[in-house]
Amino acid sequence: MEIAFVGSLRLGVLLDRHKQYVLTLSVLLLATVVSLSALGERSLEVYLSLFAVSYFASTALFRPRRITFDFVGAALFVVFCFIVFQKVMAILS
Q1: C-beta separation of 47 from 41 below 8 A
Q2: Where on the phi/psi map is residue 7: left (φ > 0), alpha (ψ -120 to 50), or beta?
């Protein structure tokens, strides 16, 4: 078992892999929203693209167990592919 550390503050809770995954994903998504809003970004495409990257990076890192099909991952992948397709078509036309 691992003990989680936040800076120099020791958390008294032992975090299992799933809790670490959820915590990491939450921090990444919060950091994405705060960073993009601080930069004044107003494009939904940028938010969704970075959400997809954050989701897939944390999923690849922790590899959480799935009971059913990963509907969130599939939806984010479809949305990300659609955004990329639109951008490529805008460049080519």
Answers
A1: yes
A2: left
Q: Please, where are the H alpha helices in 10-70?
A: 17-38, 44-62
Residue ranges of the domains in the chain?
A: 3-92
Q: How far lies 24's CA from each of 31, 40, 69, in Å? A: 10, 24, 21
Could you report the per-residue pLDDT of 5-59, keeping only the tens digit for each? 555 555 545 578 889 999 999 999 999 999 999 999 999 999 999 999 999 999 9
Element (H, E) at 74: helix 71-92
Task: Tell me the pTM.
Answer: 0.78
